[in-house]
Amino acid sequence: MEALLSKTFQNLSKNSIANKMAKKYGLRFGAKRFVAGSNLEQAVDCVRELNSNGMLAMLNYLGEFTNSKTSAAETTEDLLRTLDAIKDHQLNCYLSIKLTSIGLEIGEDVCSENLQRILDKSEATDTFVRLEMEDYSNCQKTLDIFKEMKTKYRNIGTVVQAYLYRTENDINDLNNYNANLRLVKGAYNESSEVAYPNKADVDKNYKNIITTHLLNGNYAGIATHDDDAIRHTIRVAERNEIPKNNFEFQMLHGIRPELQKQLRDEGYKVRVYLPFGNEWFGYFMRRLAERPENLTFVVKNTFKKGAV
Questions:
Q1: 161 marked as part of a ligand binding site
Q2: What are the CA-CA distances from residue 169 to residues 163, 185, 209, 283 (Å)?
Q3: Which helix or strand (DSSP H or E) is residue 173 part of?
Q4: pLDDT of 136-176, one tens digit each?
Q5: Residue 198 to residue 214: CA distance in whole angstroms
Q6: Does the annotation list 98 as a binding residue?
Q7: 186 has binding-site annotation
Q8: 232 marked ligand binding residue
Q9: 89 is in an annotated binding site
Q10: pTM of the full structure
Q11: 252 vs 23, 105, 115, 155, CA distance in Å?
Q12: Of 145, 177, 205, 307, whose CA is between 20 and 30 Å from 114?
């Protein structure tokens, strides 16, 4: 049943009709738990609250698979405004972006031109930018662009996904660039030709890449809500005398907030992933696909009086 629900949500995440309906009815049906708001002002307020509680943040302006140069340019302008807001409001926050939202599937030249504008602004505002990893078809292109930009800019990192067979080799390759990496398990529905089909294998590989990256001495964002993976990270750090400021735990907005506070109180850096914007539906569906048990929360909130 869980597998069927997960596949259903994955399919809905790419459904244009469902996305249009979601925009029409706004951040209701439980989505507000996972999304920081539909505009930048709401997102800034959310970051401020996190910062005041001793947490870090990353903002992700929601939008992907842009199919025109005009919309890619518009998204780029929105991202530039987000960088200005981070600087102007002195937020302890960085920017996380999807390359498909700024033109990757139109052409790598379009994407690179837009990305360089963003990275020029990130250098001027001294704000870190994370290139997100999307589905497998864009994996190599994302890594190639990251490696090219890493030779020109310092405030840049990317993401690797534990469910891909290739990731251990990618970790070793990216070590040559002293890459700041966000380590995730992966949230897209990939073929068994390129990704581990069994959760146990993904979990095992996730621990392996955590160990490898930490021992390489590069900064790590351990993006997980999994107690076992968190304990593994702490054990590796303690046994190898890796300082707490060499890594951080990263978690999604709205998921396991008590664990976030517990890790903060234990002296670990905790960064919360804050997506915002009108294109929230695909992101919301992938969160349900990852954790179908979140559907229970959604159903309860749908029928609450005044639920939004």
A1: yes
A2: 13, 16, 10, 28
A3: helix 167-174
A4: 999 999 999 999 999 999 999 999 999 999 999 999 999 99
A5: 25
A6: yes
A7: yes
A8: no
A9: no
A10: 0.85
A11: 22, 26, 25, 22
A12: 177
Q: Is 199 annotated as a binding residue?
A: yes
- 42 assigned binding-site residue: no
Task: Dump pLDDT digits (tens) for 184-195.
Answer: 999 888 999 999
Cα separation, 107 vs 176, in Å, equals 27
Q: 87 a known binding residue?
A: no
CATH of domain 36-279: 3.20.20.220
DSSP class of residue 176 equals: G
Residue 299: the pLDDT is 42
Residue ranges for the chain with pLDDT beneath 50: 2, 5, 295-308
Is 185 known to sit in a ligand binding site? yes
From residue 234, alpha-carbon distances to 81, 105, 135, 211, 237 in Å are 37, 39, 29, 10, 5
Q: How far apart are CA 150 and CA 158, in angstroms?
A: 10
Domain range annotation of the chain: 36-279
pLDDT of residue 223: 98
Q: Are 273 and 46 in contact (CB under 8 A)?
A: no
